[in-house]
Amino acid sequence: MKSFLSLNDVENLPALVKDALEIKKNPHVYKDLGRNKSMCLIFLNPSLRTRLSSQKAAFNLGLQTAVLDVGSQGWQLEFADGVKMDSDKAEHIREAAAVIGSYFDVVAIRAFAKLENREEDYSEQVMESFKKFCPAPVINMESGTGHPLQALADLITIEEHKTVEKPKVVLTWAPHLKALPQAVANSFSRWMQAADFDLTITHPKGYELVDEAVGNATVEYDQQKAFEGADFIYAKNWSSYSQYGQVLSKDPNWMVMAEKMKRTNNARFMHCLPVRRNVIVEDAVIDSNNSLVIPEATNRIYSMQVVLKHILEELKSSH
Ligand SMILES: NCCC[C@H](NC(=O)CCC(=O)O)C(=O)O
Ligand SMILES: NC(=O)OP(=O)(O)O
């Protein structure tokens, strides 16, 4: 694996998941793979899980890490070409990416959708600029359109807990006070379909995801109906794609509640976290024995570790 920007960088998905589950059984087997190598984690937005699970994954591989919080520590970056840099942005991505790539063997970046301009977010300007100007392999830690490390952790979690070969997985929109990106939902939908699971997406009208993310999933506007027979309920809020970045509904009836879970096939509950309790999901659901939110977050270590393993192996073979 040269870089990890999206599902497109995965050659063999079942093999990647199998490898992650093997690593989880014995996380220190490849502790020499990262020796004398280093990774820079660049954050343009906050993080708990991605930051710490990435450092833990690197630690397990003997890889050193440095963290740059662009918001509080770095110069504000300009991504547009040909502009006169006479505003608040002190450094251009052309120099920043080239410099960081000259210091480190692997570079990982988090840059959320700004939700102001759909074309800009969906062009993946930040990830693509890093890929273009940084000589080191690049890893997506949540970008304008996707969160592939999360989707891989979700897939690992479902593989561990499924009781049938092709489980019914339901991605449900849930209310939130703020406008959130579509990234997690986009990636989850793509990865679940790549894994050949039976995916239903449920949301109020106006919250349709981009066509490439919906793919062949069933779209059901009646949440109660969508929940019927589900093996996994995956809750997430996202803002509108068609009326870009807007909050069209805060309807509390879309919250995941214990009463609704009764319609499922004793489904397990999932969420990428952080989650707003009693806004997205009722305490009774997230605190139930069917909740997988903590094992799911734990698997973020192994999704990053398997990606790093494949990238480090590629670096080794190309030198
Ligand atoms: N990394 C996983 C989710 C990150 C982000 N959530 C958030 O910003 C939640 C913020 C809040 O609840 O205020 C998102 O939806 O893409
Ligand atoms: N799920 C996830 O990416 O969490 P953080 O935003 O805390 O990294």
TrEMBL record:
EC annotation from Swiss-Prot or TrEMBL: 2.1.3.11
Any GO BP: L-arginine biosynthetic process via ornithine
Positions of carbamoyl phosphate binding: S47, L48, R49, T50, W75, R110, H147, P148, L149, Q150, C272, L273, R300
Metabolic or biological pathway, per its Swiss-Prot or TrEMBL entry: Amino-acid biosynthesis; L-arginine biosynthesis
Residue spans crossing the bilayer: none
Domain Aspartate/ornithine carbamoyltransferase carbamoyl-P binding, first and last residues per copy: 2-160
GO molecular function: amino acid binding; ornithine carbamoyltransferase activity
Coiled coil regions, renumbered to chain: none
Binding positions for N(2)-succinyl-L-ornithine per the UniProt entry: E142, H176, K236, R276
InterPro entries listed in its UniProt record: ArgF'-like, Asp/Orn_carbamoyltranf_P-bd, Asp/Orn_carbamoylTrfase, Asp/Orn_carbamoylTrfase_sf, Asp_carbamoyltransf_Asp/Orn-bd
Reaction(s) catalysed (UniProt annotation): N(2)-succinyl-L-ornithine + carbamoyl phosphate = N(2)-succinyl-L-citrulline + phosphate + H(+)
The Aspartate/ornithine carbamoyltransferase Asp/Orn-binding domain, residue ranges: 184-309
Keywords recorded for this protein, A-Z: Amino-acid biosynthesis, Arginine biosynthesis, Transferase
Keyword Cell wall biogenesis/degradation: no
Enzyme type, top EC level: transferase
Pfam families linked to this entry: OTCace (PF00185), OTCace_N (PF02729)
Subunit description: Homotrimer.
Protein family: Belongs to the aspartate/ornithine carbamoyltransferase superfamily. SOTCase family.
Function: Catalyzes the transfer of the carbamoyl group from carbamoyl phosphate to the delta-amino group of N(2)-succinyl-L-ornithine to produce N(2)-succinyl-L-citrulline. Is essential for arginine biosynthesis.
PANTHER family: ORNITHINE CARBAMOYLTRANSFERASE, MITOCHONDRIAL (PTHR45753), ORNITHINE TRANSCARBAMYLASE, MITOCHONDRIAL (PTHR45753:SF3)
Protein's UniProt name: N-succinylornithine carbamoyltransferase
